[in-house]
Amino acid sequence: MLGDVCMEGDGWRIVLPENPLSAPRVEIDIKYAQNSPMNDRALLAEAVETAKALMKSVKARRFADWPRRAMKPDAEGKVRHPFLEMEEASLWYCLHCNAEISGPQIAGNHWHCPGCGASPINIFPEAFWLGPNEQKSAPVQARGEGQDIEPIVSIVDPRPKLDLNKDQVTHLIRSALFEDATNASERMGASLAEIWVDDDLDVVVSFEDHYWPEEKEPTAAIEVAAVLGIEMELEVMWSDTLFAWPGLGTVTQSTAEYTRMMLDAYRSNGIVEERYGNQ
Questions:
Q1: Quick check: helix, strand or coil at residue 29?
Q2: Which of 36, 191, 221, 271 makes the best surface tag, with the fewest CB within 10 Å?
Q3: Domain ranges across the chain
Q4: 55 — phi, psi (to 5°)?
């Protein structure tokens, strides 16, 4: 989150979440797993304390923009929400876990839910999302005050990892289709092509017959599929054209020139609503 504090060294990283009840996260590069200074508990504790000192200055800047009553309950336990203008209450409710939270509890936890850690934007003075027949909110079960929160230490591999998904495959195939297109009409066909990717990442590409020649093989897209080690099937679909005379786009590579020719054709042989800046 935006209020997290991050410290880094050679082969290690400490993240201190802005939620005061969240454990510090310590990530050690797998290459340094055996000799990382973070393996020394005393040094780790010192580094975490340094991060906590930085967190105090971060919170001071953030709290400076909050209403004073957001952090100072009155005699009745009422506090003011830092973001919801003029909303004051002694009991608050978490949208994520439905917990009921007292004013002193939510203020003391810097407006994060003490139960699930939800951020201030998920805290409301009423549980408006609960229907009349749904179970009412129960008081939050929070960690006792003064309990130490042990850092969570993990060994990580920071190298970029590619776990190819359907969306990535779709973008690669469509990009290749634009590479295959040799004129404005075929680029329109590349844009209109429907691309389905199954769970095995195999692809079906369905071309709109008015804009992509049925006999034309998308060689770049086929090559991309081969590089990815996936299968690709080609289909043709029939639908209404975006514009009349779709063949006009086959005589130019310029989309602007195609647009001018298309408008001229409509003006000469059809009807066009004149809504354009340049006639």
A1: strand
A2: 271
A3: 166-269
A4: -60, -35
